[in-house]
Design a protein that fits this description.
heterodimer, A: 4-stranded parallel beta sheet, 4-stranded parallel beta sheet, B: alpha/beta, 52% helix, globular
Amino acid sequence: MRLTFPRMGNSHIPFKALFASLGAEVVVPPPSTRRTAALGSRHAPEFACFPLKMTLGNFIEAAELGADTAVMAGGVGPCRFGYYAQVQKVILQDLGRDLDLVVLEPPKLGWIHLAHQVSRLTGGRGAGALLRAVRLAWAKCNAVDEIERLARTSRPRQGERGAVTRAENAALDLLDRAESARQVQEALEAGRSLIARTVARRTAEMRVGIVGEIFMVLDGFSNMDLERRLGEMGVEVHRFLTMSGWVRANLLPKRYTPAEEREAVGLARPYLDHFVGGHGLESVGGARLYAREGLDGVIQVMPFTCMPEIVAESVLRTVSGDTGVPILTLSFDEHTAEAGLQTRLEAFVDLLRRRRRGAAGG
Amino acid sequence: MMVVGIPRGLLFYEYYPLWRAFFQALGIAVETSGPTSRAVLDAGVSRAVDEACLPVKAYLGHCLELAERCDALFVPRVVSVERGAYTCPKLLGLPEIVGSLRTGRPLVTPVVDYTRGGSRAVDAAIACARRLGCGSVRAAWAYVRARLEYRTFTESLQVAGGWFEGAVAGRAETGTADRARPRVLVLGHVYMVNDRGINLGIREHLLRLGVRPVAPQWVARRNWTSGARALPKKLFWTYEKQLFGAAKHVVDRGECDGVIQITSFGCGPDSLVSEFVRREAERSRVPYMALTVDEHAGEAGAVTRLEAFVDMLARRLGDRET
């Protein structure tokens, strides 16, 4: 079995560790590029949302490298994500790609089915091997999140442009190579100091919170390196959506849900009194949370036509009016142009800067 | 007397007869907005977020128009109409989307949620009636009466092959039995198929072109449910399941000569399910056309495409006879 999986930000680091420790031959899909996006959009339904197209592109590129099995997550709606795998399956068949999609559906749709799919992936290995693999992957997952967080807070304070991104990539590479939980800790420490050495200023000029649909928030290629762009404009970026947070919120009992995410859902209630799928509630509540924490602005990130985020966007205007915090909505798909994004970000940051000066002067 | 306003959009085309009968039985006057006009669309478009779909934008336009003529707007939150499935995220958040308009009118927003089974519509009806100052017993009675009336409506759609306007008015449909004319399944959500203001008058154009339009709503529940079993995984959107299942049923039995799927730009569920409908049509060698509309769609362009499609159908039928 030559196993692959979709890319989402740096999630390939823990995924690779998970499946490789289970003895599978792992084919990491090549980093997403314009070609990935083009392949995905050419073969996916025209109006499907962007993550479907990107992950389809990942599957095609991994199949080119010889992958024969792909792991994909399922879902129970109402967000479209829960039906991605079924659509991708028929498309891959049409393309003559011999890629067997193993879909991990939430236990709600049947424990037995899930256990069966998992056992296909573990190749009949025992619970001990599974536990060890999960432990290593979980350590990497948390470490990757920590490195990303450090990069977000350090980038606006870097002495030299690009220094944090270089340090971050080096740190992620160390994490990727780590073979045990202890090595992950060592890699994390090394990564911390690499990033710390790039910092030249004590504080960032301003702070912005990012909310939105998780794939688009986490995937740097899909959101056109939004966090790097903001960081290089002197903005410290905050977000509570992370890989490990997703695992805690979706696969573990409720009490393990990250505190900020739980709080955000509560804060959303006066504005959105019902869940709408995806991260709709978290986006609305997250904007309020960041307003309360005194951040300068909030950016909502979503794939073009994302249903839950469109509902969130409809009420975010009211949230912005009530809290006085500017909110910018960015939606991405294969047609999004870099220059347009850069201009909008510069204008937004300019607006925030002006507000800050106004507040300080008045 | 209190006047409740029911905007003419979205699930209006599914449940209006039920809602109307319910309020009438409670002695509450019902006002509806007029047909979707350019002015209604423009008002909705100007207040909605850009990426909302045309039916939602039109709905907001109807709310704005109606707010001036009623005491409260009826904007239900229809989360789910069957166990284990939803409607659409935008319908789940509809009261808040309408709320962002700040029309100045209070919203009456009963929550209908069958995701975990049970009989939640009656709970919603009672809660709604209490909110309007009526007692629970009276509400339950009004609901039962409304269900009866609603059944007549759905039967007149399914048994007689009627369309929304006729069935609401209690008119018998004058269907054409002319066997030589091609039958086209006009596949789409109720608010796409029945709202002339947003579907560019597709049904009228088809009639003019000598086509017999067929509605997915004519297919009985048990038939579309069994049709939907052909999907690779149980769909978690009821109305999409109905669309796919109805198309499968009609296409399999050779009850149509072509399929036109009318979709609003940016419709999430349609974006995936239309892929399966198209495959089903191709498998059965039934011509399929997707028509996507938004606020910029021009009627002339759509008519040209319809004419080309119908010409092609007529040629195919002619070839088959000779």
